Amino acid sequence: MYNLYTTGKTIAMNKKKYALVTGGNKGIGFAICKGLLNAGFEVILAARSLSKAQDAVEELSSPSNVRPVVLEVTDDNSIHQAVQELSQHINHLDVLVNNAAIYPDEGVNILNISRDLLDRTLNTNTLGPISIVQAFLPLLEKASSARIINVSSGYGEISGLSAEVPSYCLSKLALNGATIMLAEALRPKRIAVYAMCPGWVRTDMGGASAPRSPEKGADTAIWLATEASLSQSGKYFRDRKEISYC
Question: Residue 110's closest CA among 158, 162, 152?
Fold first, then answer.
């Protein structure tokens, strides 16, 4: 026998579209959460603390469709706790946006940056997204057409590398490489993986003089989450157009 209530609940869950955004409490991540809500997703807003996540949820127009979760991308225990918590409430994950990142290169260059600073940036901006994909893969595999979106940067392009921004450039260059490898590995599972550059955006990281709004910076990520095809997996985008990693 089967439980009719449980079966009906499972069917309802399967019809919903779920999206998780790391670093979703501010800047581009928050704008991505807003855009995905408007596109009909149930949004999981991940932040480094529950209070930051909850405060951000309260600012959204449809907070009932947003679930706050603690996720520290450099801490495997935090990542796995998030998976365990969310697995009690959702049975698949349609979209994963690896947005959380740091930009700690002020006052350093490639000739004087410390190993510790390089480690911290790479751990956050590159190794974190890889670990998150690995941990959430069981939920991604249960979606009909899952998509992973890695928020990269022009600083991660070969032509954009700068000796004055060493750890951030290297971390985003490596994230672009990880995007290509993840796309190859996940293609048989019909899970698409994309990298995107939001441009120079007015955020805590980009500064007040940046020409783009967070909403403009988020637009390509939302487009990738809703319209891009599996055949575009492994590609790199800016302003909804494919660009070169070089």
Answer: 162
Locate tokens 């706050």: which residue? 68
Task: Report how far apart the first and last C-alpha atoms of the chain are (Å, whole number).
Answer: 58
pLDDT 10s digits, 177-200 = 999 999 999 999 999 999 999 987
> What's the whole-number average pLDDT of the chain?
93
> Measuring CA to CA, how many Å separate 84 from each of 89, 145, 240?
9, 22, 34
What is this structure's pTM? 0.92
Closest CA to 42 of 55, 28, 60, 27: 60
Tallying the residues shown for the chain, one arrives at 246
131-137-138 Cα angle (round to 5): 135
pLDDT tens digit sequence for 119-153: 999 999 999 999 999 999 999 999 999 999 999 99
What is the Cα–Cα distance from 180 to 195, expressed in whole angstroms? 9
In the block, tokens 């809500």 appear at 37
Residues taking part in catalysis: 168, 172
d(CA 127, CA 148): 15
Q: State how beta strands 95-98 and 18-21 pair.
A: parallel
